[in-house]
Structure formats: C-alpha cells, structure tokens
Amino acid sequence: MRLVISKPKFDAWTLIMSAYLINQFYFNAAISIQRIVLLGVLCVYVASNFGILQRLVPRRNFNAANNTLVLFAFWFLIVIITPFFHGSGDYSYVSYCQTYFSWTIYLLAIIIRIAKKRPHEDVFENFMMIFSISILLYVLSTILIIALPSLRNAVQNLVYMDSYTLSVMQKEKYYTRIGWAGFSGYTTSLKCTISVCFMLYLGIRNTATNYKMHFKQMLLYLAAMLGNIFYARTGVIASILCTLLAVAYIAIRLGQFQKFLKWFLVILVGVISFSYYISIYSGENVIFNWILELFISAESGGSKSVISLDIMFDQMLFKPETKTMWLGDGYYTGTGGLSYMRTDLGFLRLILYFGVPFTLYIYALYINIIRNVARFGKKGTGLLGMMLFVSFLFFEFKGESIIVFLPVAFVLMLILKSSFEYREE
Fold this sequence. Notes:
Shape: globular
Strand content: under 5%
Number of strands: 6
Low-confidence stretches: 1-8, 281-287, 294-316, 419-425
Largest sheet: 2 strands, parallel
Helix content: over 70%
Strand order of the largest sheet: 1-4
Order of helices and strands: EHHHHHHHHEEHEHHHHEEHHHHH
C-alpha cells in the first residue's frame, strides 16, 4: 500500500464557509438576530440554487428524501402536540428540534457550494473531505487557544456562552474543551467521530481500488482522533470501535488478513510496552486509567470505583412508569433549566418526553436512512453505514446525539448516488 500526497482542491471561501457552518458560533450580542439572519441567508442560498441539487441528485434519491421528509414532518407534528396533550407547557424540545432543520440547511449549502466550485467531481467524497478539513481547522484552533491564554480570554469574551458553560470552562479537566465556537464537548466530539468514519471509508475505498492511502486522509483521521482526545473520551472510544470495524473489514472482505494480523500485533505490543513504561515511573497505569476515565473516578480515601457507571445506572437510567413508557410526560427540560428527571441519556430523555413508540419511530427513521446509504452505494458504503450506526448507539447512550446524526445521514443519502452515477447519467 502506497502513501499518496494529493493537492488541495477547495478554495479559501469554501473552506471558511464549511468550517464555520460545521462549527458555528455567535458573537456575544443580539444572539437571536444573528441566528435568524444566518439561517435566512442560507435558506435563500439553498432555494436559489435548488436547481443544482435537482440536477445533481438522481430521481430515486429525491424520492427517498421526500418520503423521509414526510415521515419526519409527522414526527415533528407529534413533538409539537405532545406538550399540549399533556398540558406541560414545556416547548423546549420544539425549539431544540429546530436544530434538525438548521443543520440540514447548513449541510445542503455546503454541498451546493462544492458542486458549483468543483463540477464534474465526486460530490460524495468531496463533502466528506470538506467536513473533515473543517474538523482539522477546528482542532488547530483548539491548539492555538490552549497555547495562547490571551486568545482564550478573547474567545470567552467575544463568543456567546451562557453563564453555566463559562463556569464549566474554568475547570481544569475541561481546559482543552475549547475552540473558535467556545466550549467544545460532547457534540464537537460527535462531529470528530463522524469525520473518523468518513476518513476510514475513503481510506478503505482507495485501498480496495488502487492500494493507495492518501496522506491527507491519514492526516484528517489523526486530527479527528486528536479532537476526540481534546473534547470527550466518548468520541475516543466510539472512534476506536469504528476503527476496529474498518480493520476487520480490511482483513475479511479485502482478503488481507495476514497484513491485518501483523499490524495488529505490532500496535498491540507497542501500546502495552508504552503503557508499562509509563506505569514504572508513575506508579500506576496512566494509559489504562486515562482511557477508562470515562467510567472510573476516585472516591474519598483514594479508592477506585466505577462512579460514572454507578450514576448512569442508579440515577440516570431507570424504568419510567407504564403510562410514561407509552405516552411520555411531555417534559424535556426540568426545573432550573436542567434535563427532566436529571437524566442525560439520549434515549431516556425522548421516552420521558413522548414515550417509547415515538422514540422508536425516530430511531427507525435514522436506521432506514443508514440502510439506504448502505444499499444505494458501492463497495464500502455498507461499512460506512455500520460505523455511523455504531457511533450513534454509543453516543446516544451517553447523551442525545440524533440531533446531528440524522441530518448528516439524510444528506449522505441524498448525494450518495451522485458520486457514482450522476456524471454517467
């Protein structure tokens, strides 16, 4: 397998636009006006260039997208009706769901820009590349902000963040969770994990066709992994799982089991040796504890216990009443602006809001989109769908992630065939 260094293909304005929309922020003044103006401008941009999407996207993709939008419109109608049905008066989730629409518009605007500036090229691949380059730029901004305290102060003063977020940023363990968009945690790590999935897919596709691994894809993969280290260990573990899936795919589907075994043993020995070397000088296995810090915490007296798991299973994870299981309670936000019933688990928050049936409904909608991505594409898209599904499951168990995964999957389904058949048609 050869390493190939490819030339950059995106102009500066495309990079700036994509980097901002994927990791957008608002200045600390007139927040609502900024949001309305941004979304309004992008809606006009997408509408005025809708003909490009019509020419770009095959009819079957448009039909699948239209069916999905109808199903999603029904689900959104239930979201609106639920607080009224229960008399809760809590419409916070209705406002939160506007992010679905906003994210879809953001991604469609990026696709249109790519199609206009890079005609007759692989739109599907270019979208994944520009998404991952945007993540790289964001990670670089994090490194700069960490290195320059004055820049950190400027971000905290200029970028809009609520008082709670600002207080959280002052904690030492969250020192690296910052970028040009301000505090960067769970959702930013989720985007990094999506970038990991994209680069694994492109790397495998290139390896399967011409045995070439592009340097840019490797660099973007490593940048996304570094971003996960900065922002949330949830993303680190999810990305490792996706990487193992990709490695297994190479070993089994591409018939390179011996090469896989050789590199697996080299990496395993290297990790064990490095971990042992660190443990000799530190008195404990720093690498092991760092990876498991998501689950392990120190109690008083210095003993170790699975605190995060205890909180998750004893406090955040519980079985609601039968009525709540079927219909929900119509609450998404509780007292003090905290999550209802003090749980952060994504699936449980949806169940508490409108019950198991409609929670399964939106999950089934996402799974159907992922299935179409795997079915419509060629070699490797099945793996891409599996990686996105595994990442979704892992993130959704720790928090609510479908707000990002669903628009990304929808856009992938929309443009997938264009990368393989549009130029032929």
